[in-house]
Specification:
The complex is a heterodimer. By secondary structure, chain A is an alpha/beta fold. Chain A has one domain: 3-Layer(aba) Sandwich (Rossmann fold), CATH 3.40.50. Chain A is built from 9 helices and 12 strands. In chain A, strands 6-7-10-3-11-12 form a 6-stranded mixed sheet, sandwiched between helices. In chain A, strands 2-1-4-5 form a 4-stranded antiparallel sheet, covered by helices on one side. In chain A, strands 8-9 form a two-stranded antiparallel sheet. The chains are: A alpha/beta, B mainly alpha.
């Protein structure tokens, strides 16, 4: 991925519309420390947003908050214009998928890890596509019997690849990536970025057909506005935390800067280039 | 068969055996003399007090008194189960007391209505209800304690895996299930192990007591079999209830794992 490319909103046939909105998020630690203070973030169709900031700025906490992993003390997260009701959270997390900074793998083989998400109710009738995963591993230089390797034998970089591909195979609408290539060597990092770039170019199915009826019906009951037609597609989005300025430049349309749990600035790609110049 | 009542002198002779422990402690420099003395005194005083209470309750022979004592016993058991755990969370005390009470009272009710004829205990309910409750509680307490300890320990140590499951679209139950089942299994292991070896490497206390009190061995064995199954059921119900209530406290309706709620107890 040499640059983030144009936003492919033509796929949805309209002007930029928010896929994901985090509005006035606030999180306070038990002892009273404000961890996130009135943080808002909007991700439009086809957009790649970088999150930057010094250690302790709240970058990871922001992604966790967007993924609804932690209880919030204020604010809300909206997906496709609607708030996420409690019963629809698992289906939401499948569509807005957070990839943890430190790759977490369950015991067993690489294949076991890739199969894991299909064991959950939110997978519906979705199934593991071995051929597709095989192509991705080949592209990242991990061919052969990689699928059957024990995760205990993987390097940090290989673990990160498995963690990333485990998420990509689920075809979420939005990927929340927390330093996804920090353990990769330069060559593999570029390959992974290229893979991500290709993946982002494929439109997301607006309404996952395999979603379980129970969760979908509950979500539909809660919505105030009509949903897009089931067949509608839209470009995928990515929100990425990275400390690598070059990577941010390559991958992101704009960068949001955090410090002390607050948004302290935002640069478009052009502004970032101007600043560097 | 006859029953030989022990005199105060007989008890004193047995109590003097504590001197053996004291001698070993002195000889090997274990430094346990003070604790041994306190333990010996507590054993005698606590059991004498219990005897007093039981004597009073047996004499009163009223359901209200028996139920009152059993309520106190089960509440103490619920609290004791948590005192042994290393990690706690808000609501852990009510989790334990609820689980211990619900399971022990249910199993006791089954025993007194379905197993032991009401004709046997209606005249003096304390004679059956209190010893049975005591044995059920002792084991249920153990299961609840082990189960909750394992649940909080695993959820803490494997927090990343729990959150990974949630990130990948698992419901709170799907995310917690492996840890819940491990915890329930852990709580049930001791009673299953006991059932495996009972009569082979250990003679159960209740059966031994009945034989000493003059009961026929086979009659004592039948009682022991009944109590083993009551204990097993009580432990399974108590452990499962406690672990499931713990799971509900630590995972909210938004399918979030409240890891920050778990606190390690110092010391």
């Amino acid at each position: 991925m040499t640059n983030p490319g144009p936003r492919t909103d033509s796929l949805s046939g309209g002007a930029h519309s928010p896929v994901l909105e985090a509005n006035h998020l606030r999180r306070v630690a038990d002892e009273g420390t404000v961890l996130l203070d009135d943080v808002s973030l909007r991700v439009d169709e086809g957009e790649a947003v970088g999150i930057t900031g010094p250690p302790g700025a709240g970058k990871t906490l922001l992604l966790r908050a967007i993924a609804l992993l932690d209880p919030l003390d204020g604010g809300e997260v909206r997906f496709q214009g609607r708030p996420v009701v409690a019963d629809a959270v698992p289906a939401f997390r499948r569509k807005v998928l957070y990839v943890q900074q430190r790759p977490i793998l369950v015991e067993g083989t690489v294949r076991d890890n890739l199969l894991l998400p299909f064991s959950f109710e939110s997978a519906g009738s979705g199934s593991f596509d071995e051929a597709r995963i095989g192509r991705w591993f080949e592209a990242l230089g991990r061919g052969g019997q990689f699928l059957d390797r024990s995760v205990a034998d993987l390097s940090g970089g290989e673990s990160q690849i498995v963690s990333l591909l485990r998420a990509l195979q689920l075809d979420p609408a939005v990927l929340l990536l927390d330093e996804p290539t920090s353990s990769l060597d330069d060559r593999t990092r570029m390959r992974a970025e290229s893979l991500l770039s290709d993946w982002l170019l494929h439109p997301w199915e607006g309404e996952a057909p395999a979603e379980p009826t129970s969760i979908r019906s509950l979500a539909l009951e809660a919505q105030a506005e009509p949903r897009p037609p089931a067949s509608q597609t839209m470009p995928r989005c990515v929100v990425i935390i990275t400390h690598d300025a070059a990577q941010a430049k390559r991958m992101c349309h704009r960068r949001v800067r955090l410090a002390g749990g607050r948004v302290v600035g935002e640069d478009s790609q052009e502004q970032a280039r101007e600043q560097e110049a | 068969m006859s029953y030989h009542d022990l005199s105060a002198f007989d008890v004193a002779v047995a109590a003097s055996l504590i001197l053996i422990n004291g001698a070993i402690s002195l000889a090997l420099g274990l430094g346990m003399e003070r604790r041994l003395a306190i333990a010996a005194v507590r054993t005698v005083v606590q059991l004498l007090l219990l005897g007093w209470v039981l004597k009073w309750i047996f004499a009163a022979s009223q359901w209200s008194t028996v139920v009152g004592l059993m309520l106190v016993m089960s509440a103490i058991a619920g609290v004791s189960a948590i005192r042994r755990t290393e990690r706690r969370y808000p609501g852990v005390w009510s989790t334990s007391v609820t689980a211990v009470m619900a399971s022990s009272w249910f199993v006791l009710a089954v025993a007194l209505t379905g197993v032991i004829s009401p004709e046997a205990w209606s005249a003096n309910p304390a004679q059956y209800a209190i010893p049975l409750m005591g044995m059920i509680l002792g084991n249920t307490l153990n299961g609840v304690s082990l189960g909750l300890d394992r649940l909080t320990e695993e959820l803490t140590a494997r927090r990343g895996e729990v959150e990974l499951r949630l990130c990948l679209g698992a419901t709170r139950w799907e995310a917690a299930r492996p840890f819940v089942t491990n915890a329930v299994r852990t709580g049930m292991v001791p009673i299953i192990n006991s059932m495996m070896v009972v009569g082979l490497v250990s003679l159960p206390g209740m059966m031994t007591g009945q034989i000493l009190a003059g009961a026929q061995p086979m009659a004592a064995v039948r009682y022991q079999i009944v109590i083993m199954f009551l204990i097993a059921a009580g432990t399974a119900l108590g452990t499962t209830t406690a672990v499931l209530l713990g799971y509900r406290c630590l995972f909210n309706r938004q399918h979030q794992f409240l890891a920050g709620q778990i606190r390690k107890v110092k010391g």
